């Protein structure tokens, strides 16, 4: 009986080791599949708005060492032509989200001042899009900027905000970095200012 019990214990231990090995293999396969799925996400380049619409891509660049930020906005029509834009450096900002919200407010102000509607606002900050669509009150400085965005957006019929990945927002990102690094402050409609025309041609035409 003692030999039988010993054999049974060894068999149970062997079965447990086999189950652990199989579970480890499944976890490894799952982790590899998840990694491949993320890597396989196709890059989505910028896409034009529908005919009759314009699209504003906006982005913010943040420097945590100086608490400064750069705002970049690029306006394009349904043919992909850059028809306007603005960029600005801001100071006394504390978070990337605040810089993103300031870029969105700048885009809305620009759109209202030039009667650009209907318009699609694109940003790679998912939190900002969620907060703009939310009805929750936020008394922070960031929350007050979001309220300003909603106020301006109400003056732009059919306008809306949507999230895109960074590769679809590269033009606004490059313009925001330019503003941060050079302290340039510009807003234009029509022809791109000569001071940044080469930069826009090299970095913002995708």
Structure description:
By secondary structure, the protein is of the alpha/beta class. The protein has two domains: 1-41; 54-203, Nucleotidyltransferase, domain 5 (2-Layer Sandwich), CATH 3.30.420.10. 49% of the residues lie in helices and 21% in strands. It has six helices and six strands. The protein has helices spanning 2-39, 96-113, 126-133, 141-153, 170-182, 194-203, and strands spanning 54-63, 68-77, 82-91, 119-123, 160-163, 186-189. A six-stranded mixed β-sheet has the order 5-4-1-2-3-6, with helices on both faces. A hairpin with a 4-residue loop joins strand 2 and strand 3 (82-91). Helix 2 (96-113) runs parallel beside helix 4.
List keywords for this structure.
206 residues, 6-stranded mixed beta sheet, 6 helices, 49% helix, single chain, Nucleotidyltransferase, domain 5, alpha/beta, 2 domains
